[in-house]
Amino acid sequence: MKFGIIVFPGSNCDHDCYHAVKHVFGQEAEYVWHKETTLKGLDCVILPGGFSYGDYLRTGAIARFSPVMSEVIRFAARGGLVLGICNGFQILTEAGLLPGALMRNKGLKFICSRVNLRVENDSSAFTGAYRRGQTLSVPIAHADGNYFADDDTIKRLEDTDRVVYRYCSPEGSISNEANPNGSLANIAGILNDRGNVMGTMPHPERACEPVLGSTDGVRVFESILSAFA
Amino acid sequence: MKAKVYVTLKNGVLDPQGKAVMGALKSMNFDEVRDVRVGKFMELELDGKSMKEEESRLKEMCEKLLANTVIENYRIEIK
Question: What pTM does this model have?
């Protein structure tokens, strides 16, 4: 399977994604500079974390108009798999590929830590290898991860099983205390209506090897590989 | 032609920055402060020909880039 990792000016998790795809999972990976206008030959596109365009105006607001993004939108419309991690998630919401917005963390601070997540969807192309209700330990590193959407959108996400996972306590309970950033309904990751675009604030690519302290992110990539096979 | 664009969070959208600023003001004994909302202010210089045309162009700029209408409102002033 061939993965493309989009590199925006200010991306800084592009190498993490490349490493995970290429060296942990042994797949083909290539960087795609944001000025490119083709995604030919790619099976999955990853928008990595970072601070594209210095987060100026709003996170992801300017990157969303990078030349490659029109092609990412077409790629998604053709059913291609698109995974946005952290800043990538923010860019996908700005681009309208995912609903809602990611606002400043409720506590205003940049949070770099490991969080617990409860898996809510175990049937998508990105989560098929998980079990619903399973808890994961995955790192976050963001200042703007506070997921917001209007009531109708939240209801639609819930009703159509498009919440991927939520911030939870180590035991798996969903509470305010376990919510690091103020996200509505503790939402940490979502899918688009077709299930081929996923946005996640936690970084699965940084939880793929024991040396990093957790391998709970492995199944995101395993899910993608088996969905493609 | 000059334009001013004000971008503010919609009512009902939590504004943690505003809350922090309010907390600071209260700690400085400005007890009359009941709420603070932090927004953005942008000044644009334009080569536009007609005010009317520029107004609709500015609206487009706001809808596409300057504001995120999921969470923000905008207001335009042209001079």
Answer: 0.95
